[in-house]
Each structure stands twice: as C-alpha cells, then as structure tokens.
C-alpha cells in the first residue's frame, strides 16, 4: 500500500458536513479501503462496488482487495460499457443490486471507472434509501479532473444528456494516476481539452502550467519517435502529471465551493456556470453527429475554439490570447475531422442545449485567458456565431512542427 504521505490531497470545502478530500497519486487505489473507511459512515459494513467490465477487468481486483483489507464486505456490479447505458433503466438495475446485496443506509457505494460509471453510480447512491454515501475512484483523465469532483450525478434520457440527476457529493475521491496508463489516446485528448477549458475560464496560471506540461509531452513523443535520448524520466513526468491533476481538482473545488448547486441567478466569473465554456457548441457538435464522431471532451475542444472566436469577434478577447487558446487545444491532442460539418446546422442545434435559461442560450465567453464572462444570446449576433463556428472547425488539428 502506498503511504498516505506519498499522495497529494485536495480539500473540497462545503457546508453542512459535505466537505471531503481528493487523494491523488500513483498507486492511490491501494488506499481506497483506508480512504473509504475514513470517509464513509462509522457503522458502514458493506460496500457495493460499481464499475464496467473493461475497468473492472483492469483494476477491480485491486480496488476490491483494498476495500476488503479495510474490513468491508464487498460485492461488485458491472454496468454495460458506454454512454448509451447511462440511463434510468441501468440505474434501476444498480438499485436492484443494492437491495439484493442488502446495502443499508449506513453502508456505501464505490464508483470505479470514468464519468459514465461515476455519474450513474453516484445517482443510484443519491436515490437509494433516499441517499447513501459514496466514494469516487475515477479512472479517466476527464473524470479525475472534473466529473468526480463537485457532486453532479445523473443519467441521460431519450430527450438528451444528463437530464435526470441529483446533487450528491461523494464522501471522498481517490485518483490513481497509474490508471491513465491504460487509457486510450482519444480519452486522454478528451480529458486534456477539459483541462484546457478549466484553466481558460478561471485560472491563467493553471492554463499556462497545463499547456507547458502538454508541450513537454509532445516534445517527449517527438524525441521518442526521432530516437533521441529522452532526459526526463517517466517518474518525473508522472509526478508533474499528479501535480497538474491536483491543481485542476483544486480549481474545480474552488468553483464548486462557491456555487455548489450552480444557482440560476449566478452568472459571474466565479459561478459554476463558467465551467460550461465550450459546451454550447460542443453539445451541438455531439448532437448533429449522433454522438458517434466525438468523445465529449473532443467536442468541447472545438467548442472552446468557437467560444474563443466569438469572444474575439465581439472585441472581448485579444487575438494573441485566442492564438494561445488554439495552441493549447492543439497540444491536447488530435481532434476528429470536423471541416465537413455545416455551421448553420450546428447553430440550429445550439438552441436545444439544456443550459438555455428562459428559452435563451447563455454563452460563456472569455475576456482573457483565466477570466470568463457569461453573455446573453441577444448580445451575440447570429452571423458572429456562424463565422466563429466555421473558423473553429477549420482550425488545424495538428501541431505546427515548431511548437
Ligand atoms: P467514459 O466513462 O465513457 O470512459 C471512457 C472510456 O474509457 C470507456 O470506454 C471506459 O470503459 C474506458 N476506461 C475508463 N477508464 C479506463 C482506464 N483506466 N483504462 C482503459 N479504459 C478505461 O468517459 P469519461 O470521459 O470519463 O466520462 C464522460 C461522462 O462524464 C459523460 O457521461 C459526461 O456527461 C460525464 N460528465 C459528468 C460531469 C459531472 O460533473 N458529473 C462532468 C463532466 C462529464
Ligand atoms: N462539469 C461541470 C460541473 O461540474 O459543473
């Protein structure tokens, strides 16, 4: 078991006894039992471990052993893999499993997997016996820096994504950075796009630091391809990766602490709403391509570029800042082709976004890197939206060779 002192620890400070910590580092899964023992209720005896076959095959034995080592009776339930199974029907099956296992109000649920597993298991925990405690053990980059922190849980319905859900904060989050070693490249790209987004909307230093890390990764990959002697060891990069993830979690924790339930009336630069930067066009891109072409984070990458283009055209953002944003998205990884998509079709799809309030889309735009502004649809002319979408979809998807 790794020692507690080897992990980074980020507090999420909330009212009403809902505070918790995010423990981050290589091998952190070995501490899952100890963390669950400290985070769940004192009387907890049983833990329902929720995962999917792929993730459970890779990390289930380790997670279950850690939980059993801390004295829990553990049973696992695996949801089928994929976003299309993040439904009420699947949640119903999870709830049946909790009942059959005899899970009581004082017991706990552990979610082991990406955002799909985390959202569904968290939702099931939120409604089972009107709420049982749960622990997040996220295994994708996106879930480690974003979805496991903040207590948004939910499922999709036939009408759209995440339309049914609950705010239910976890009792703890355990981020094992080693799990990223088996993550497919596209999933990493999707996570890095969300990381770029988080820095861009609220923390310039986080933005620059994330970009610098990504530039180092890109250089490392080129050196390996070119046969160069790579000086920095994998371990050194691994530690910096853990520090970046911790900084990303700390940023998310600050936003969540200030606006836990994303109040409708809030639209200031520190409101939770700013985390939707890139999501208006991102969701539209996902919808017009039938949720098949893009990973969510990849669509958000294009969405960030489109919102950046709008910001520049409205005179809010300097061209140099936009260029820096373009560079960061390029460093996140190669995005799927999008140049063939029709901007007008995407613009029409924006109107169906569930983030609309009073029938109107609220754009999250940038005044600078690190400072967002929420703007009403009426202040953004349709021709600006169209031109911005076109420009974003044309943005080169690969890095210039000298970057
Ligand atoms: P995901 O959960 O679908 O995981 C991506 C893929 O990676 C899956 O095939 C999964 O089985 C696999 N996988 C997971 N961990 C792995 C590992 N370590 N090694 C190999 N394969 C692994 O995708 P995601 O990007 O993690 O999450 C997306 C979901 O998160 C969406 O449903 C989205 O709505 C939700 N989300 C929620 C919030 C929130 O605040 N609750 C925020 C952002 C996104
Ligand atoms: N992912 C956006 C939020 O948690 O609010």
> Which sequence of SSEs, written as H and E, runs from N to C?
EEHEHEHEHEHEEEHHHHHHHEEH
Largest sheet: spatial strand order: 1-2-9-6-5-3-4
Overall, the morphology is globular
Task: Indicate the multimeric state.
Answer: single chain
CATH superfamily of the largest domain: Dehydroquinate synthase-like - alpha domain
Which runs of at least 5 residues are low in confidence (pLDDT < 50)?
229-234
pLDDT averaged residue by residue: 93
Strand content: 15-25%
Task: Tell me the layout of helices and strands.
Elements: E1 8-12, E2 20-25, H1 32-39, E3 46-51, H2 53-69, E4 73-78, H3 88-101, E5 108-113, H4 115-127, E6 133-138, H5 141-147, E7 152-157, E8 160-167, E9 172-176, H6 185-202, H7 204-225, H8 234-258, H9 279-288, H10 296-313, H11 319-332, H12 343-350, E10 362-368, E11 371-376, H13 382-394
Parallel strand pairs: 2-9, 3-4, 3-5, 5-6, 6-9
Antiparallel strand pairs: 1-2, 7-8, 10-11
Bound molecules: nicotinamide-adenine-dinucleotide and glycine.
Nicotinamide-adenine-dinucleotide (NAD) binds at residues 52, 54-55, 58, 81, 83, 86, 113-117, 119, 139-140, 142-143, 146-147, 150, 152, 161-162, 179, 182-183, 187, 190, 296.
